[in-house]
Amino acid sequence: MVQEARCVNCGFNIEKDYILFINGTEYTFDSFECAVNFVAPRCAHCNSIIMGHGIKHADEMFCSQICSTEENHSPVVP
Ligand SMILES: [Zn+2]
Ligand SMILES: [Zn+2]
Fold this sequence. Notes:
Layout lengths: L4 E2 L6 E2 L3 E5 L2 E5 L2 H8 L15 E3 L2 E3 L2 H8 L6
Antiparallel strand pairs: 1-2, 3-4, 5-6
The structure holds zinc ion (2 copies).
């Protein structure tokens, strides 16, 4: 029996799937975009997907120093 794979992000039926292991749990995606969408954190200020290191401030993630400063009204010491 062939098990149908579905993208956990968009629910699309998958032929060529991407499988990612996060903390020991297997996730299946139909595209790298969906994987990034599902996994990557988002900037707490502009909601951009953070692909790089990002900036963490007070338990929130920001895409850049500008967003962090605008949200917190004070510069972040790295
Ligand atoms: Zn998908
Ligand atoms: Zn941002």
